[in-house]
């Protein structure tokens, strides 16, 4: 941010409009990234102090929320194709829309980050009388079975070279699990040795009990 801002404001240079725009775009994206980082850090320390996530409950159509997220992410990559499969009568549930969007966004962003050659990112939804179930799967590098639980730890990042060279703080899944559990649900990760990629599964109660 500083680099680009400093360059663009130099008084001895006249930038054409395209250069200016590109620079400003990068500044905007990086500022968003910083804001997100700070929000995540604050949320993580709050969880530590208060022991849980506070939710603002409203009605949510998760299928619509997910389609909107996918549309945003689709503009950031042309190596990945997205497939969203929900039954047309998928139920509206009670939950915190902002927090659940944060969970979905992190899962989609991980699916993209950790499948560097691209492939399909598939998001499905199912439901029964009491629960809804979401699955986000990618065709990326996968996770080792011994890491399937550890990736939900605070600041945990895999030690493979891709994860080390990819930007991230290792907070996304820690917060995702805290958010889903605050809703009374579960989130787990599975990788299959015979098949590439990872699947994240989420269950959420259709009628959540407010934690007391
Ligand atoms: N879809 C995936 N495929 C393979 N590995 C994954 C996937 N999602 C997460 N991981 C591994 O789990 C680690 C933790 O993920 P998490 O989302 O918590 O952190 P992050 O993406 O590194 O950073 P951020 O805090 O920005 O989300 C990642 O660093 C990566 O090693
Ligand atoms: Mg992440």
What do these coordinates show?
The protein folds into two domains: 49 residues; 148 residues, Heat Shock Protein 90, CATH 3.30.565. Helix content is 42%, strand content 20%. It contains six helices and seven strands, in the order H-H-E-H-E-E-H-E-E-H-H-E-E. Strand 4 and strand 5 form a beta hairpin.
Question: What are the defining features of this structure?
Answer:
7 strands, 6 helices, 212 residues, binds magnesium ion, 42% helix, five-stranded mixed β-sheet, alpha+beta, Heat Shock Protein 90, 20% strand, two-stranded antiparallel sheet, binds adenosine-5'-triphosphate
Q: How many domains make up the coordinates? A: 2
User: What's the story with the biggest beta sheet?
Assistant: 5 strands, mixed
Structural class: alpha+beta
Q: Identify the overall geometry.
A: globular
Measured by DSSP, the beta-strand proportion falls in: 15-25%
Question: Could you write a compact summary of the structure shown?
Answer:
Helices cover 42% and strands 20% of the residues. By secondary structure, the protein is α+β, with helices and mostly antiparallel strands.
SSE arrangement:
Blueprint: H1 2-9, H2 17-50, E1 58-60, H3 62-74, E2 80-85, E3 93-95, H4 97-113, E4 119-127, E5 131-137, H5 161-165, H6 172-182, E6 186-191, E7 198-205
Parallel strand pairs: 2-4
Antiparallel strand pairs: 1-3, 4-5, 5-7, 6-7
